[in-house]
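Need residues for this backbone.
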C-alpha cells in the first residue's frame, strides 16, 4: 500500500474511530434431520445401533423409567454418579418445579448397571450443572436463575436442606445456561455460561459480575465470591481438565475444543475482542456440526495406551462421539481429527455429556430425543420427548478372546474412609479422575483442620515415582495453600532447588510448573512471591512451566515482571499460539498496573519496544498512547500503524494527535505518490 494512502487512512481514523475487533464466525447452514425420521427404540435396541472400534463395548447404566432426561453428571468420593435431569425443558416451570437430581450407585463391574437409583432433590427447574462436594453429603446444582447448595443432613440419601449461593443468572435461552461445574485444586469451581443469556450476579463479598452469552467464570463453593475467567465463545457446554491443570471447553458454534486462557476474549457472534485479538482454539475443524458438548480428556489406564491424551466430544446433531488426538506445539495443544469413536444409526441418540469414570471407562449422558434443535425446530414441536433418557458406559474388553480384559472397577469404594497415606498414594494413580477425587478429599481435610500431608513424605515419594511427579507436586502445594496457615515460602524455594538438581532425574517442569500454579492461587503476592517466580523464569526453559508462570503473572501483574515477559515473547516460536496469547495478556496487565509504564525504561532495543507497542494498543490510557507515539521513532511505519492512530484518537492528548499528523506528513513527503 503506498504510504500516502496509508497516512490518509490514519488521519481519517483519528476523526472517526471504529471499535476494535471483528465480527465473529457466522452460523453455518444447519445439517438436516434435527428431527429424527424414526420412532424411539428401547434401550436394548438402541444399544444394537452403536458402532465402536473393535475391542470396545457399550453398556447400559440406567434408563427410563428409573431416571428422566439426563443433562449432566459427576462422580463423588463414594463412587456414586450424580445426574441432573429435566422434564420441564425447554420451558422453565412458572409454578412449582419438579425436575430431579438422581444419585446412582452399586454399579455392576461386569455390566455397568446401576444397582441403586435414588432421588436426591425433586424441586429443581431445568438443572444442568452439578457438582457433588467432597463431603458426599452436599452438592452444588443449578436451577433456573440460581446456583444452589443441597445438603443431606440426616444421611437418608435425600436432601433436606438447601440454600441459594448465587442468583441473577439469565434463563431466556434454556439450552445455553450455566453448566459444567469443575472443582480445581485451587478451591475454585469453574463453569461455562451459555448462549444469549444475560446475568448479573454477586457473591457474598458484594463483588458483582455481568455475563452475556458465552463466557467462563469461577466461584467459591461457599458463595463468597464469583469472578469472570474468560469472555466470548458462543455456547460453551462441557468442561474438562488435562494433567497440567489446563481447562478446556466444548462450544457448539465457535470451535469443538478451546483451551481456556484466563482473561482471554474468544470469538463470538459480532462481539469485539479486547484489542489483543481473539484467543486461539485447539481445533481447526468443526466435526461437521453445530451441536458439540460434553468434552472430556482421557488420562487413565482402562483403554489402550494410544488413547492417552485424546479428547472425546458429544455430537448431538450427527448422533456420534467425535474423537481428537492432542499434539503439542510448545504449550499449545492442537487437535488432530480422528475417525469417530462412536456412531449411532439411531437418530434419537443425543450425547450431551461425557465423563471419565474412576474405573477408567467413559460414561455418556444420552438426552434421548426425536428433536435436538433449540431455535431450528419449534420449541413447542409435539415430537419433543419428555420421558426417555439413558446413561451408557463404554469399556475396553480387548480383541483377544483368549486373554479377556478384567471388568473395570472403581479404584476405591469410598475416598472419605481412606487414610491420608492412601489418598497420597492415589495422587500417583494413572486415572486423572482418581487423582482429583483423592486430592479434593485431602483438601477438604486440610480445610477442616484434620489433615496435612507431610512435605518430606511427598518429596521422598516424588523421587521414587517420576511419571506423575508434576501433578503430585502441584497438589502438595495447593493443599498447603489451603491450610489456615499457608505454605511457608521456603517450601516453594525447596521445590525450585530440587528442580535445579539434575541428580534427581526429574525435569524442572515436573516440579516447578505445577508449583507455580499453586503459588498463583495465593490471593495476595508480595516481593517474596515475585522473587520465587523470577527465579523460576530465569532458571529453567520449559514450555509448560512458562505457561504456568505467564498465567501467574496474569493474576499477579507487577512492573518487575514486564522485562521477563518481553524476553519470553522475543524467543517464542510462532506456532506456540496459546503461550504467546497468554504472555501478551500478562504483559498488558503488568503495563496497566500502577507504575507499569516505568518498566519500559529497562527495554533493550527496537525489538522489545515493538513487542510492548503491539500490546499497548489494547491499554486504554494516556500513558499507553504516549508510548505508542514515541515508539514510532524506532519504527516509523509499523504494521499496526492504523491501530496506533486509532489509539491516539481515543485516548491521547492534542499534542499526541499533532505528533501523528506530523508523522503522517513526513510519510507523505518520503513515500510514493
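Answer:
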Amino acid at each position: 500500500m503506498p504510504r500516502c494512502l496509508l497516512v490518509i487512512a490514519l488521519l481519517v481514523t483519528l476523526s472517526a474511530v471504529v471499535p476494535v475487533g471483528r465480527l465473529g464466525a457466522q452460523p453455518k447452514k444447519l445439517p438436516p434431520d434435527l428431527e429424527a425420521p424414526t420412532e424411539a427404540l428401547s434401550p436394548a435396541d438402541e444399544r444394537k445401533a452403536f458402532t465402536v472400534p473393535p475391542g470396545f463395548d457399550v453398556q447400559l447404566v440406567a434408563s427410563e423409567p428409573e431416571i428422566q432426561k439426563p443433562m449432566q453428571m459427576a462422580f463423588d468420593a463414594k463412587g456414586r454418579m450424580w445426574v441432573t435431569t429435566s422434564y420441564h425443558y425447554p420451558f422453565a416451570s412458572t409454578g412449582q418445579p419438579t425436575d430431579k437430581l438422581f444419585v446412582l450407585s452399586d454399579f455392576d463391574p461386569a455390566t455397568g448397571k446401576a444397582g441403586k437409583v435414588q432421588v436426591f432433590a425433586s424441586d429443581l427447574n431445568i438443572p444442568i450443572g452439578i457438582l457433588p462436594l467432597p463431603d458426599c453429603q452436599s452438592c452444588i446444582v443449578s436451577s433456573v436463575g440460581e446456583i444452589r447448595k443441597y445438603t443431606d443432613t440426616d444421611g437418608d440419601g435425600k436432601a433436606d436442606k438447601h440454600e441459594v449461593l448465587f442468583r441473577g443468572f439469565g434463563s431466556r435461552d434454556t439450552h445455553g445456561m450455566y453448566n459444567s461445574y469443575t472443582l480445581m485444586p485451587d478451591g475454585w469451581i469453574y463453569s461455562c455460561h451459555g448462549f444469549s443469556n444475560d446475568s448479573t450476579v454477586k457473591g457474598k463479598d458484594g463483588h458483582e459480575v455481568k455475563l452475556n452469552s458465552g463466557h467462563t467464570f469461577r466461584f467459591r463453593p461457599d458463595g463468597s465470591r464469583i469472578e469472570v475467567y474468560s469472555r466470548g465463545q458462543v455456547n460453551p457446554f462441557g468442561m474438562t481438565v488435562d494433567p497440567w491443570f489446563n481447562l478446556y471447553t466444548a462450544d457448539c458454534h465457535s470451535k469443538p475444543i478451546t483451551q481456556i486462557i484466563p482473561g482471554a476474549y474468544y470469538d463470538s457472534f459480532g462481539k469485539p475482542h479486547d484489542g489483543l485479538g481473539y484467543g486461539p482454539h485447539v481445533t481447526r475443524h468443526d466435526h461437521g456440526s453445530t451441536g458439540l458438548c460434553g468434552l472430556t480428556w482421557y488420562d487413565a489406564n482402562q483403554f489402550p495406551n494410544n488413547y492417552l491424551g485424546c479428547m472425546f466430544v458429544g455430537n448431538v446433531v450427527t448422533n456420534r462421539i467425535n474423537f481428537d488426538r492432542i499434539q503439542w506445539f510448545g504449550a499449545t495443544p492442537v487437535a488432530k481429527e480422528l475417525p469417530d469413536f462412536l456412531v449411532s444409526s439411531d437418530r434419537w441418540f443425543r450425547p450431551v455429556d461425557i465423563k471419565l469414570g474412576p474405573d477408567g471407562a467413559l460414561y455418556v449422558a444420552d438426552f434421548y430425543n426425536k428433536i435436538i434443535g433449540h431455535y431450528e425446530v419449534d420449541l413447542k414441536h409435539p415430537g419433543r420427548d419428555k420421558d426417555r433418557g439413558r446413561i451408557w458406559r463404554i469399556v475396553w474388553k480387548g480383541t483377544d478372546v483368549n486373554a479377556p480384559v478384567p471388568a473395570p472397577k472403581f479404584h476405591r469404594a469410598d475416598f472419605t474412609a481412606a487414610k491420608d497415606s492412601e489418598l497420597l498414594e492415589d495422587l500417583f494413580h494413572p486415572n486423572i479422575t482418581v487423582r482429583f477425587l483423592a486430592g479434593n478429599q485431602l483438601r477438604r481435610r486440610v480445610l477442616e483442620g484434620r489433615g496435612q500431608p507431610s512435605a518430606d513424605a511427598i518429596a521422598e515419594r516424588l523421587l521414587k515415582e517420576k511419571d506423575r511427579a508434576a501433578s503430585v507436586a502441584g497438589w502438595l502445594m495447593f493443599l498447603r495453600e489451603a491450610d489456615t496457615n499457608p505454605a511457608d515460602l521456603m517450601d516453594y524455594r525447596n521445590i525450585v532447588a530440587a528442580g535445579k538438581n539434575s541428580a534427581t532425574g526429574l525435569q524442572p517442569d515436573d516440579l516447578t510448573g505445577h508449583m507455580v500454579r499453586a503459588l498463583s492461587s495465593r490471593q495476595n503476592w508480595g516481593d517474596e512471591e515475585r522473587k520465587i517466580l523470577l527465579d523460576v523464569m530465569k532458571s529453567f526453559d520449559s514450555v509448560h512451566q512458562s505457561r504456568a508462570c505467564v498465567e501467574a503473572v496474569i493474576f499477579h501483574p507487577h512492573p518487575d515482571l514486564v522485562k521477563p515477559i518481553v524476553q519470553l515473547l522475543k524467543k517464542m516460536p510462532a506456532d506456540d499460539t496459546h503461550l504467546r496469547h497468554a504472555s501478551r495478556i500478562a504483559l498488558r496487565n503488568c503495563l496497566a498496573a500502577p507504575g507499569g509504564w516505568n518498566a519500559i525504561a529497562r527495554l533493550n532495543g527496537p525489538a522489545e519496544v515493538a513487542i510492548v507497542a503491539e500490546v499497548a494498543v489494547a491499554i486504554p490510557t494516556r500513558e499507553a498512547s504516549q508510548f505508542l507515539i514515541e515508539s514510532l521513532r524506532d519504527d516509523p511505519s509499523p504494521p499496526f500503524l492504523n491501530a496506533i492512530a486509532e489509539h491516539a484518537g481515543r485516548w491521547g492528548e492534542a499534542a499526541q494527535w499533532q505528533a501523528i499528523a506530523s508523522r503522517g506528513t513526513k510519510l507523505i513527503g518520503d513515500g510514493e505518490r
